[in-house]
Amino acid sequence: RQRQMCIRDRLFTLQHLRSLPQNIESFRWTVVGSVLALQGACVHQLHGHDTTGTSTLAASSRRKVIDHLHERKKSPFPKERMATPIELLERVKFPEETANDFSKSWDEADAKNCEHFVMLRNEFIHFLPQGWSHCLVGFPDSLKSCWKIIRELLEAPITYNHRLESDYLAKMMQTLNDI
């Protein structure tokens, strides 16, 4: 299911990219789709090395789940909360979280551009008034940075590659090439 969502996010973004600049609403949905795809790429990379199922959880949820797994008594499973896209992006940089060292794969400008997209996405999704007035300054650079990072995360090998079907990998690479 998660893999299908990753492909759907990329196709969604591609659809809106194709209607730029004629359709002004497509700017908003390109940002939303790009952040979803970035989050999906981070999850793909983190899950590919995870054995506990906690790599994509927020720090507090992660700790509670790990503590629960180590408990001897049978308490209710703790409520899980996923890490934010920015937390996930920071987490994939660490070699202990993945088998790859992404710490030098992208520069600070790329990270800032992605953070800018995440903030815009939050404004759009949560219907904050400033989100409805598009701040398109730097839009092409932010978009390129976001997809550069997505490509790097998706093309890098993962430890548990046997979990991926060849059909999924082919669709993933095709949508990346289309974008």
Describe this structure in words.
The radius of gyration is 17 Å and the shape is globular. The two termini are 22 Å apart. The mean pLDDT is 78. It has 7 helices and no strands. The longest helix has 23 residues, at 25-47. It has 179 residues and is an all-alpha fold. 60% of the residues lie in helices and 0% in strands.
List keywords for this structure.
7 helices; 179 residues; mainly alpha
The sequence of SSEs as H and E is HHHHHHH
Assign the structural class, choosing from mainly alpha, mainly beta, alpha/beta, alpha+beta, or little secondary structure.
Answer: mainly alpha
Largest sheet: none
Question: What percent of residues adopt helix (DSSP H or I)?
Answer: 55-70%
Task: Give the topology, please.
Layout: H1 2-18, H2 25-47, H3 59-70, H4 85-92, H5 108-125, H6 139-155, H7 166-178
What's this entry about, in short?
With 179 residues, this protein is mostly helical.
